[in-house]
Design brief:
- This protein has one domain.
- The chain is built from twelve helices and four strands.
- Strands 1-2-4-3 form a four-stranded mixed sheet, with helices on both faces.
- A hairpin with a 4-residue loop joins strand 3 and strand 4.
- The chain is elongated.
- The relative contact order is 0.14.
- About 4% of the residues have low confidence.
Length: 304
């Protein structure tokens, strides 16, 4: 099998990377609060942030699914799929098997909402129609890994930091404009470092949030392979999803006009990098092909 020490090394590295990025985002927010209102601003942010975090569960995962017009998937029609989700959930150690929803969209994709206690996973119609069994297993394992690692809560906290930083920056710039006449007459002084912080903090916080998202995606890919023992299945699914999302007309007629987005501005890592990392797992000498047969219910399930 794949060496456990290598997995643990990757997991620890991703954990500390995520922790440092969250710490940086929280630091930008706290620094803005201190610049605008001193210690009172810090305490105010702490109280408001704690209340928002405590009441985050007020938005039901079912409500999110209804916003996307997703409906519960009748598992009696797909017994093999129900068995697959249950097996992956047991392997991941989830206390509750996620309920599947069907999203009326032709492109293959999936996403998870909720928590480990209330997990929901949405699959698009395109995913059910266009993904092969091992590809679907890889995609579901990826989403279950997000749930197991509490990535939904981590990214929710990151989003709270980012939105708070943007709000305080906008408020600070508004106060700066209101005090501009007083500064011109020399009646008040304005700290140049404070101005620079007001301008750069939202950008830096957003870049940290994007980097955090990419780290969590890499980590979910790694854990998905742990669950399925099949890096090729997830790699094939990612490649297929990427092709469908680009659109065949665009690939056929406008291949030269594709300008790759800078990696710092992507919420997900580049698909080719994810695929290369997955396939590198298989090529390592400590990878045993028998891992692919370790979960026979996953790789030999009946589909369509």
């Amino acid at each position: 099998m794949i060496d456990r020490h290598r997995w643990q090394h990757h997991s620890r590295r991703n954990f500390w990377h995520s922790a440092l990025l969250l710490l940086a985002m929280g630091g930008f927010l706290a620094l803005l609060g201190w610049v605008l209102a001193g210690s009172a601003g810090l305490w105010g942010l702490l109280v408001i942030g704690s209340l928002l975090w405590l009441f985050r569960g007020a938005v039901s995962p079912w409500m999110v699914m209804s916003m996307y017009q997703a409906r519960p998937l009748a598992m009696s029609r797909f017994p093999a799929l129900a068995q697959l989700v249950a097996q992956l959930s047991r392997s991941a150690g989830l206390p509750v098997v996620p309920q599947l929803f069907l999203l009326p969209h032709p492109l293959p994709n999936a996403f998870a909402v909720g928590s480990a206690e209330r997990p929901l996973i949405a699959l698009t119609e395109g995913a059910l129609q266009q993904l092969q069994w091992r590809e679907l297993a890889g995609v579901l394992a990826h989403e279950i890994s997000h749930i197991r690692s509490n990535d939904l809560q981590v990214m929710g906290l990151a989003d709270l930091f980012s939105r708070g930083t943007s709000l305080l920056s906008t408020l600070g710039q508004l106060l700066l404009l209101l005090n501009l006449p007083l500064w011109l007459f020399g009646w008040v002084s304005i700290n140049g470092w404070a101005i620079l912080l007001l301008l750069l903090a939202p950008l830096l916080s957003t870049l940290a949030q994007l980097a955090l998202s990419r780290t969590r995606e890499y980590d979910a890919d790694l854990h998905a392979v742990q669950l399925t023992g099949d890096p090729e299945g997830l790699a094939s699914a990612l490649s297929k999803i990427e092709r469908h999302q680009q659109g065949w007309l665009r690939r056929l007629w406008l291949p030269a006009q594709r300008v790759p987005m800078p990696s710092a501005l992507r919420t997900h890592p580049d698909t080719s990098q994810r695929i290369n990392r997955l396939m590198a797992l298989k090529s390592r000498p400590d990878y045993d092909a028998s891992d692919k047969r370790a979960m026979a219910g996953i790789h030999h399930g009946y589909w369509r």
